[in-house]
Amino acid sequence: MDWDRVYDVLVVGGGNAALCAAVTARQAGATVLVLEHAPKAFRGGNSRHTRNLRAMHTAPTSVLTEQYLEDEYWDDLLRVTGGQTDEELARLTIRATADALPFMEACGVRFQPSLTGTLNLSRTNAFFLGGGKALVNAYYATAEKLGVDILYDTEVVSLRLDDGFVRYAEIISRGFPRRVRAKTVVASSGGFQANLEWLKQGWGPAAENFLIRGTPYAKGRVLRDLLDQGVASVGDPTQCHAVAIDGRAPKFDGGIVTRLDCVPFSIVVNKHGERFYDEGEDVWPKRYAIWGRLVAQQPDQVAYAIIDSRSERLFMPSVFPAIKSDTIEGLAEKLGLDPTKLAETVRGFNAAAVHGTFDNSRLDGCHTEGLTPAKTNWARPIAVPPFSGYPLRPGITFTYLGVKVDRNARVLMQDGRPTANLFASGEIMAGSILGKGYLAGFGMSIGTVFGRIAGREAAKHARN
Amino acid sequence: MQETETTEEARRALEICNACRYCEGFCAVFPAMELRREFATGDLSYLANLCHNCKGCYYACQYAPPHEFGLNLPQTFAQLRAETYAEYAWPKPLGAVFQRNGTVVALITTLGIALALILTVLIQDPTVLYAAHEGPGAFYRVIPWWLMTTLAGGTFLYALLALAMGFRNFWRDTGSSLAGPAGARPVATALHDILTLRNLGGGGHGCNDRDEAFSTQRRWFHHAMFYGFLLCFASTSVATVYDHVIGHPAPYPFWSLPVQLGTWGGVGLVVGTAGLIWLKVVSDQAPAARNLLGADYALLGLLCLTSLTGLLLLGLRGTGAMGVLLAIHLGIVLSLFLLLPYSKMVHGLYRSGALLRHALERHAGHVPPAD
């Protein structure tokens, strides 16, 4: 490695957005260096755990059915964000997803029909064959073939800004502190969701009990560094996307398998054996994202979903086996709950459940009466042993705070002036567009679209 | 079959896979897995034998080592397949040969060659052995008709019996309520999957033959080997009919049907086995089961030797080398027949069985449950 070499484009990060930027810049003729914090085996940031990309299309494609037009896409985004978005950037992203798929295919990304259990997404989302790691592998192979230089185990500590101009990057490469210079820099180093200390600033000590679903390398170091140097920020600094996942999941990197889809068919109690929210408010795909927050607000940030044997097969299999017992008291003991209290909660729920026709495939209206909080659907008594329990904890997917960019992916300073040679793509700037909530596959859309814009603009700037 | 550390590991792996399902576009294993929530040992055996070892799932896996889940499905399934070969072997005690199968195959082959040479020398006058022979029945002047037919017929029939019993054991052990009734359509589907190696297509883009990159080399080398083997088998069958039915003993002229079938089959076998050996040598070892490589190399070597000595015999059959070459070739063929039920050859049997079971499940209309 020639540490004195001045690259045209330095890409910070090694996920989807970073690689889209690197490949695009290289294709435009720029020399490119990618710095990935993770070792090769864990490269790709949170993109490793993704599986699809939401794409606008005016006619059916090889993997997408019917059509999904700009306005419907925009409406979907508006609904989940509650308006916390930037219409110009959002519409630009949406429109650009229409030619994302051919670019991806040219980079060796392969698609498949939508996965089982996700048929509702077959119209709007293109699924990667083999998932996000296969996608990441394809991008790395393409980048290598094009002659992009890649360093793994290399963390960027600081991008030294001087009046909106990045002079150099301070890095630690395989344990050695170094400096790297480049004509332009693309920051694609993600959010800070793996930084528990930072999460505590928004959540207090409760954050200690959060599980991080994705890469442990998303510490937000570059994000912090840029904000500290006067770069404009977007997004709520305290907020993160949190879902309820299996409480037995590893602290980091548990990914998709830690999901638990049993909540609508269960009662969920906290560590005191008390219910705290309507488990049957809506179908799970529309509710899983609020349950992370709900569990985070409970004592010790833990909850327990309890079902009976009739519901065992109504949801996707869990990675860890259910904790089972023939009695509610026995189950309570295994879960570490007060047996008397849990039995009382279950009895109270069962007595309040109004007789109806249970149907797991729709909002069945089976509800409770005179119970607080009520359960408004699938309120079938927990009555047929064996009983199963699953511990739940908040699983953090991503954070919303980011750097502000313009439509050319150029990073803006707090005073509104554009930086001279700094661009951003991916989670580090996604808060501009997705300020709240989540839309399946949209993170990959932002990463791909802005990665390509950042790569194109950085190459253009460097070669001028 | 019985629970072992390997079945436990395979179950753990599949429970992770079943909660993830990102790989379901790769091959038949994942849709078959999704029909199940629990995995009895018979299910594990079925899924392991359904796996074509394309390694697509390993390179796509976010839980592959060094992730703490440490998923390595191709390696786990390869280990489990080796255990199922031992489990279903007939007679049962001979399952032990799958423990160090590479050594066993090499030893039997060596003994086969030695035995053929020794018998020939004992039975025949050395002047006969080293003389050039031509015309109908030339081979029988070196190795008498009765010896050749008894040994070949006997070992081959025994191999067929042992294979059939092994298949029966596999079929019983992997039985499930998910399979629909046998019929022409599922059988046709299974045959198509067997003959085209559809599951080495990786969803249409090829497999990870060597590393992260995709290729169809392994599939084509396997086709060369498999169809080469079939052509050789056809050659032997046609020759048997010529000899025993219409009384026209070998050797046959170069342009005759048996020699043409055998020649092209032999070329296919050499190309296929050499290609597969080469792929094994150069491929990434991470998803491979290293302790089983010996068995793979031994069988590929044996098949390669069978065709090489056959081709050599064809080239030199008019010379004094014919006698010794014939003995060596027949010694190798004898070993191959003996080893059919006791080498990696059985993978074809159980893979075909698993593909048939999968076709029966698919045609029964089962679709994986939605979440």
Structural summary, described in words:
The complex is a heterodimer of chains A (464) and B (371). With 464 residues, chain A is of the alpha/beta class. Chain A has two domains: 6-237 and 400-463, FAD/NAD(P)-binding domain (3-Layer(bba) Sandwich), CATH 3.50.50.60; 243-395, Alpha-Beta Complex (Flavocytochrome C3, Chain A, domain 1). Chain A contains twelve helices and 19 strands. In chain A, the strands form four sheets. In chain A, strands 1, 2, 6, 7, 8, 9, 18 and 19 form an eight-stranded mixed sheet that branches. The longest helix of chain A is centred in the C-terminal third of the chain and has 22 residues, at 442-463. Chain A is elongated. Chain A starts with 5 loop residues before the first strand and ends with a helix. The model of chain A has no long low-confidence stretch (mean pLDDT 95). By secondary structure, chain B is mostly helical. Chain B has two domains: 5-89, no CATH class; 92-361, no CATH class. Chain B is 65% helix and 0% strand. Chain B contains 15 helices and no strands. Chain B has helices spanning 5-20, 29-34, 41-50, 56-60, 73-88, 101-123, 126-130, 138-142, 145-173, 184-196, 217-244, 257-282, 293-316, 322-339, 346-363. In chain B, α1 crosses α5 and α3 (41-50) packs across α15 (346-363). The model of chain B has no long low-confidence stretch (mean pLDDT 92). The A-B interface holds A 41-42, 48-49, 51, 110, 112-113, 115-117, 119, 127-134, 137, 141, 250, 253, 255-259, 261, 284, 313, 315-319, 321 and B 15-16, 18-26, 34, 37, 56-57, 59-69, 203, 205, 212-213, 367-371. Chain A: This is FAD-dependent tricarballylate dehydrogenase TcuA. Chain A: It comes from Teichococcus coralli. Chain A: It holds the Pfam family FAD_binding_2. Chain A: Its cofactor is FAD.
